[in-house]
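User: Can you fold this complex?
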Amino acid sequence: MPEAQTLAPWLESARSTAAADLANAEVPTGREEVWRYTRIADIDLADYAVPDADAGTSVDPIPLPGAAAAVVVRNGRIASIDRTDALGKATVSTVSEHEGGQALLNSVRGEAADVVGHLHDAHAGDIIVIDVPRGHHVEAPIHIDVYSDVDGGLTCPHTIVRAANGASVTVFERRRSGEANQLVVPVVELDAAADARVNYLVAQQLGLNTISLEHQAATVGQQAHAVCSTAAFGGSYARVQAEMSLNGRGSSGDLLSAYFGDGEQMLDFRTFQHHNAPDTTSNLLFKGAVTGEAQSVYSGLIKVAETAPGTNAFQTNRNLKLSEGAWAYSVPNLEIEQNQVSCSHASTVGEIDEDQRYYLESRGVPTTAAEQLLVSGFFAEVIGQFPVDAVKAELQAYIDDALAADRAAQEAAA
Amino acid sequence: MSELVIADLHATVGDKAILNGVSLTIRSGEVHAVMGPNGSGKSTLSHVITGKPGYTVTGGSVTLDGVELLELAAWERAKAGLFLAMQYPTEVPGVSLEAMLTASAVAAGRDADVIKASIAAESERIGFATELITRPLNVDLSGGEKKRNETVQLGVLDPKFAILDEIDSGLDVDAMKAVTRRVEEATNRDNPLGVLAITHYKRLFEELEPDHVHVFAAGVIQKSGGRELADELEETGYAEWAHLVDNSGPTAFDNPFGDTTFADGLNLHEG
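Assistant: Here's the predicted assembly.
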């Protein structure tokens, strides 16, 4: 059910504006604070172009059993949307055909702030809107399966999830790509109105020649709750900027991530917990492991506005370094303009604990299996909190397998 | 009948010699008690035999039925039939008793499907709370629970030889009874367990009857005898050997408080 290629006039014009902004935008040099320790200077955005409209691909989606709806996106365009009765009154559509699409688009992320944002806005493919009306609960998760494989391709997936007052919805997005050199610039916007609940999980399983520059943004209304979670496994350089804005009194939000990098990968996370209203709570838990020559960067900011007394903000980033050549960098930050707050941040970079490994080995567990148990246990804390039960075991297994492959490779090299 | 033979074992930590020629032979069904003052190297003996990292063997051998254990990885020694009940069992966040023993069974080619039932039976036997089976290993457990946990593992893994490193420390009377009775039973079954029990005090022997008692100081066995030697030590203490103990330098003895790490075992990031 490919979408008609005519876009709403407002969207056409927004893209033209973005293209003009893109032409005038400055390319980051890597010296800017938000681009420190990144590979942005190595990327020539002009090397990538939007794939032709007929550049389909035959790769099958990985199904999510029991999904309320399933959207398949191939090379930037929607290939199909399957809706079931479980959607009820909720809708799954493109922003172009959505009645309120113009007001919705970028309402959470805001105007593009840099060249990457303009690039996205100028070249976004089909933008998906999941809209859940007031008081409506979509019990089963909604599934989005994104894949691209055109050499030199630029794809800009964009998912908007809106839950109106008292509504709830869970969305699982899986993003993969082929072995070709590609640039993927995703945007995720989560909008939880008062008393609503929005759960989002993305499994980033891009190919190792794909660069990903992702922007996730969530706004949470009064007494509402949002979960924005990321399993980041793929990409050559994969960056996620994640922002949780607690705008309504008593709102709360979780930012979660499990990441595993090997080979030459670089996984880069910039998080923002914006407390803008009283009695708001944010929980951030990012846990990652790097092995081989892989690198990870975590930089997080808790920002408590003067308007947000009674804030509770927690930020924890833990990293496991599984090889000599791997490198993990972690910088937590606080910026507080209000006295009545309770904030904590913790950041660690360490190796597998030798005593823990020995304990397991002394019970007859072989070294690699012991490390698998320990690493798996390390990740279980965060994967256990992911809001999509059906994929937790798969994500754990991915890490087990990746670690086993890494250890086998290290043994073969030794 | 199996035999664990420790012959002229020498080991160092860094530049410091801790074991200075230990020789001891344990046969199936025998209980050997190794008693000695703090700092004598008793725990090091258990760590070197089981392959804990951080020690350098500088001489001697440890064989189990003729197989040289010192050439094997720690997990292979366990597979060969060796078990260590630790003085301070390590907390392992994120890994349950069940997951660990299942992985061990898989590696040993044993039927992993019966592990669950076996853990349940052993737990029942010594009063280890069953809700702890699926919780992270040793995390937030009391001293008594940790030792019962070690004993459950001993029962499930069913080794040929067990080293009990001060299994009596941190135990209340009930836990002490349950644990030592379980070990004593294992030494009396068909294919009986051989035991090397490291301890300060003879209270361990109320349930677990030692066949041989060895006084250990300055990294060697100073004197061997029967049960009566334990009684004698209770009277006289270790004063006779105190002058041999060198407490001048850093040692590798267990730090009961562990290193300064977070609960998930990671060190604080410097910087």
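Chain A touches chain B through 33 residues (CB under 8 Å). Chain A has one domain: 9-352.
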